[in-house]
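Can't attach files on this board, so I'm pasting raw text. These are the components:
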Amino acid sequence: EPEVTQTPSHQVTQMGQEVILRCVPISNHLYFYWYRQILGQKVEFLVSFYNNEISEKSEIFDDQFSVERPDGSNFTLKIRSTKLEDSAMYFCASSEWGGDLEAFFGQGTRLTVV
Amino acid sequence: AQKVTQAQTEISVVEKEDVTLDCVYETRDTTYYLFWYKQPPSGELVFLIRRNSFDEQNEISGRYSWNFQKSTSSFNFTITASQVVDSAVYFCALSDPNTGGFKTIFGAGTRLFVKA
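---
Top answer:
Structure tokens for the assembled complex are below.
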């Protein structure tokens, strides 16, 4: 069964460093998403991406965040200068156009900022 | 605005008990999808079920069953004869095509403890 894959599974970074989280969505999907889950809290929408541009973003997704689809398969989330409060689980998801509203989630990347 | 409420923060049951996890949602739209996800201690999100707004049939899958009632905007999840392996956080979620980009709104989750 096709799946969304994320790398790395766990990343530790120092405060102020840039970090890039990587995702490979399901190959025929056209919508891509990033979600964040701070430990013990709910999963929160960050951003959706379609046709090489952001289609919606939340208040959390400020200028420190950016997304990119650098090639035909990868979808990345960059945090420019990490803060302690960026420590969370980050989930990538993808969904197929055409009315299929089910997003398939990756297994997540746990980001720890120290 | 879209909203998902899971009023039960934590539930603790003894193995073999039945347990129901409540979910109430809010949306102004007539077309939407509802989901349940399981998050075990390892952290990944495990898809359990999707239900669209036009299909109010209840569903049973093994020990799991779901009760969708549009009249009360509820989508409750029941585990029959619970097992220790059911211990996890369960999230109810809503996906609404009118939010743009089909984003999914999650409830706060219910942590289920099943004791042996």
